[in-house]
Amino acid sequence: MQIVTRELGRQERPKLAVHLRALDAEDRRLRFGLPVSDETIREYVERIDFGRDVLFGVFDDELNLAGAAHLARAEAHAELGVSVLPAHRGRGIGGALLERAHTHARNWGIGTLFMHCLTENAAMMHLARKQGMRIAAASGEADAHLALPPASPASIAQAMLAERVGLFDYALKSQFDAARRLLASALGTGRDS
After folding, report:
1. How far, in Å, CA of 4 to CA of 95, rounded?
2. Which of 12, 92, 152, 173 would be 8's cystine partner, CB 3.0–4.6 Å?
3. Residues whose CB falls within 8 Å of the CB of residue 140, separated by 6 or more in sequence, listed in order
4. Is the separation of the CB atoms in 150 and 109 below 8 Å?
5. Residue (of 18, 54, 52, 23) closest to 36 by Cα position
6. 3-class SS at 63?
7. pLDDT of 52-93, one tens digit each?
8. Residue 170 belongs to a domain with what CATH number?
9. Which residues pair with 144 in a beta bridge?
10. Which tens digit of pLDDT belongs to each residue from 98-117?
11. Do 95 and 127 contact (CB within 8 A), yes or no?
12. In Å, how far from its chain's centre is CA 19?
């Protein structure tokens, strides 16, 4: 099954905040490199600069973010942070988000994709290796780097197609969710029935 990613807009900050707050204390520490509170997550989400950075998400059937990636652009590199909710792990969501971010950074003209994580974050270390990233580890932390080729017509077309598929997927899930709600209302049952 192919995992569909979609670029998130400013108006979806609340969904990202809900997603990140759903991570338990250990997952938050692995995602951010240190323990973070709900207030820290709120501040982090509010500070995302959509003029410079990009967010990608994978939505479940109830339109909740199952996984999210934040690609932050700097001068010579782009830094990536990825999170996937526990119930959705092992399905390829992290890899799909990493692949989408890789293509986007390449199309920005960025020469290097960078990830920083704790060496104990086995999932991110696995994704980095699978993507062919060079990993340097010391003192319990790891930096992963991937040299990116220049953008090409194929990489640009790939990104455009991925976004169109992501929009279609979200629209389809929205229609199914609306139909579920309507049916539940007509039958007088709760949404989760």
Report:
1. 11
2. 12
3. 118, 119, 120
4. yes
5. 23
6. coil
7. 999 999 999 999 999 999 999 988 899 999 999 999 999 999
8. 3.40.630.30
9. 115, 135
10. 999 999 999 999 999 999 88
11. yes
12. 10
Residue 192 in any domain: the answer is no
Cβ neighbors of 132 (< 8 A, separation 6 or more) are 146
In a domain? residue 16: yes
pTM above 0.85, yes or no: yes
Token output for 64: 């909740």
Q: Are 64 and 18 in contact (CB under 8 A)?
A: yes
Q: Do the domain assignments include residue 44?
A: yes
DSSP symbols for 102-171? HHHHHHHT-SEEEEEEETT-HHHHHHHHHTT-EEEEETTEEEEEEE-PPP-HHHHHHHHHHHHHHHHHHH
Query: How far from 143 is each of 39, 97, 98, 112, CA to CA, in Å?
Result: 27, 18, 15, 12
Residue 154's domain spans which residues?
Answer: 6-187
Q: 123, 81 in Cβ contact below 8 A?
A: no
Looking at this protein, which amino acid is placed at residue 152?
A: S
Residues 6+ apart with CB under 8 A from 77: 110, 111, 112, 113, 114, 145
The tally of domains found in the chain comes to: 1
Residue 1 within a domain: no
Quote the tokens at residue 122. Answer: 């086995």
